[in-house]
Design brief:
14 strands, binds fe (iii) ion, six-stranded mixed β-sheet, 9 helices, binds zinc ion, globular, alpha/beta
Length: 257
């Protein structure tokens, strides 16, 4: 299995995923076609499938042009995104598995950012779109805080600690600044902020992250930690501090951070 990160638009990532045994190659979330075509050309690859994590234009904008270059290839997305993803041919159910060459890919349903948001799991990699970011999560546009909490903590959170997380946007630095605002005393967050700042300055990407590191530094996976609850109490003295209520306040605070 080979994965390549492709920066697109302002701060998006598309990814190439290749089965090395068969040469079958997919793109996840082509925001635009040109950088994807260039990446394929550079590696001498053809394209055999498009995987969309959700319908937003910055994750599907390249579908139509890629389909002109590679007519008839399958386009995967959640069943509920029917009519919202250009060229969609496969309408996935929660947990459904499909093949790319010899790779088995599982679609995890992650409602919250959108109703049809999915993450794609293959071996130790998980492509999370706008559900989980480095040290953060997507905005809750179509679902409820309870759904988003569940998608992040119970669905993605059930993956092994060493799962590599390939997310949809380069927001990690800004997210860590918010994480440090929530937990100023957490040395893991301060350390990661310093490391990511240096990494980005040297022209590298913060993707992928690892689930174990996210558990230590991502406030949206830390709703049961006393320091995070104390932050929420300072915002809402009456907050009952259930995980979902903590999550709701964190997300609202991040929206205006
Ligand atoms: Zn989105
Ligand atoms: Fe996005």
């Amino acid at each position: 299995m080979l994965i390549r990160s492709i920066p697109c638009l302002q701060d998006n990532y598309a990814y190439l995923l290749r089965c090395e045994q068969t040469g079958q190659t997919a793109v996840i979330d082509p925001s635009e076609a040109l950088p994807v075509l260039k990446a394929l050309q550079k590696e001498g690859l053809s394209l055999h499938a498009i995987l969309n994590t959700h319908h937003h234009g910055d994750h599907t904008g390249g579908n139509s042009e890629l389909l002109r270059h590679f007519p008839g290839i399958p386009v995967y997305g959640h069943g509920s995104d029917q009519g919202r993803i250009a060229g969609q041919t496969h309408f996935l159910a929660a947990g459904e598995v499909f093949e790319l060459g010899k790779l088995s890919i599982q679609a995890l349903h992650n409602p919250g950012h959108t109703h049809g948001a999915v993450s794609y799991a293959v071996h130790d990699a998980l492509f999370t779109g706008d559900t989980l970011f480095g040290a953060g999560c997507g905005r809750v546009f179509e679902g409820t805080p309870a759904q988003m909490y569940h998608s992040l903590n119970q669905v993605i959170g059930a993956c092994p600690e060493n799962t590599r997380l390939f997310f949809g946007h380069e927001y990690t630095r800004k997210n860590l600044e918010f994480a440090l605002h929530v937990e100023p005393e957490n040395p893991a967050i301060a350390d990661r902020l310093a490391a990511i700042t240096a990494l980005l300055q040297s022209g590298n990407f913060s993707t992928p992250s690892e689930l174990g590191l996210e558990r230590l530094t991502n406030p949206f996976l830390r709703c049961e930690v006393p320091a995070v609850q104390a932050f929420v109490k300072r915002i809402e003295a009456e907050n009952p501090l259930t995980p979902v209520e903590v999550f709701r306040v964190l997300r609202a605070q991040k929206d205006r951070f």
